[in-house]
Description:
Elements: E1 4-7, E2 12-15, E3 23-28, H1 39-57, E4 61-66, H2 73-76, H3 88-105, H4 121-133, E5 137-140, E6 143-146, H5 171-176, E7 183-188, H6 193-199, E8 221-223, H7 225-237, E9 241-247, H8 251-266, E10 271-277, E11 280-282, E12 285-286, H9 297-304, H10 306-313, E13 322-323, H11 326-350, H12 362-380, H13 385-408, H14 417-434, H15 445-466, H16 470-482, E14 485-490, E15 493-498
Parallel strand pairs: 3-4, 3-9, 9-10, 11-13
Antiparallel strand pairs: 1-2, 5-6, 6-7, 7-8, 11-12, 14-15
Helix pairs in contact: 4-7, 7-8, 9-10, 10-11, 11-13, 11-14, 12-13, 12-14, 13-14, 15-16
Amino acid sequence: MGLSVTNTLTGEREAFEPASDEEVLLYVCGLTVSDDAHLGHARLWFHADVLHRWLDWLGYDVRHVENVTDVNEKIAARVGEREGWDTEADVARHFTEQVIEDMRGLNLKRAEVYPRVSEHVPEIVALVERLIESGHAYETNGSVYFDVTSFDDYGRLSNQRPEELEADADADELAEKRHPADFALWKADGVSADAVREHRKHEHDGELPSGETWDSPWGEGRPGWHIECSAMSTTHLGDTLDVHMGGRDLVFPHHENEIAQSEAATGHTFARYWLHNGLLETTADKMSSSLGNFFTVSDALAEFGVNVVRTFYLGAQYRGDQVFSEEAMAEAEERWERLERAYETAVAACDSVDARAKAVDDDLRAAVDDARDSFVAAMNDDLNVREAFGALLGVGSAVHRHVDRVEAAGGDVAPDYRGLRRAVETFEAFGGDVFGLELGREAGGDVELLEDLAALVLEVREAERAAGNYERADALRDDLEALGLAVEDGPDGPEVRVD
């Protein structure tokens, strides 16, 4: 059975059938770079990454585009908060740099491109012009609004109808609209003072910032929020996406409005499959910058490490909510360590001089094959990552049983090389390539680099000893040993080894 996913557009589980047998067009709603990214943001990144990796494993060429929203009133409101934050672009650049660092720290596969709103204003203006020309949008006082009554299918993603929607705008904007549910494609002038006051994190001295503005046929202004994703996705992936992925909190109005404006402009289906991530919660509240109950990605990586963070996310399917807590992170750490130990045990047994080509453990081989089948079935079942991780742990149990049997036999039974090799390959293909876990990294090039650095420190230590600075030399030795590097003073001079 092939991959099936839950399509928000239909509300049903569907067989995944992209337009091409070879290529998948994947668009992920990226971050508004107005603050440090937190683990709630990263949960979407992670599950999009796993989807990308699984599609790779299934043999597709994945064209993955993930936008960066660097034009927003929340960004403009932070202008002047720190030295060097003189413009909206300065603030956006600072947080975009942090986002890129966080993504690399999480071991995410790179998207094909990370388009930014600020570099796609010409495409946004052109798309708005098409909507005006086709009668789906109208201009009022330098702003342009989408007419929701002109699009018959408005509301099919969120199951809401225009006549049922309550107005969500200030009085001036409502006065400009023909219908309360109409939404802005282009806003005249800059960010309003009220918006800056609502989103500011500091007191502004003097005139309030108003953000960047651009020329347009309707005068100076800024893009509306929803039109940005339509312009960027169609620019880089074409009129119809295979998969549009984002947080569940974006279903309405953002994704609903994307569908309306995109399909009204092109006449084509905007996205074949809509996959929506559940929320990351702390107790009863979703993790949110505005609520101040968030754990930043950089802090989480520093405290837990990338493997534990990724294992935490593997504890729940993408479309369900997940709770971040000390207990949940402790469980993730324990599950990661179980997998790591199993992998190391399999590698050591497989590479042992005692492993034999003719040794056969039918139980080991059958268990590994069954676990592989279970992993594939779980991933094809709407990306059920928790069940798939359990299948990997099943491989670990089979490896430990095999090694225990060999040891108990006292040399009468040899390790099954082929069975162990299959286990190692399973860990590396599914745990490494699909789940993005860094199995075996500590035993490779990192050790060599550590030893090279230790050798340099030893040279400094010897220079200190030659100068009679014995306390300083001993302190350097103690620092190395604290890092797990044992220093031994022999007849040929000091040597270091990794414990």
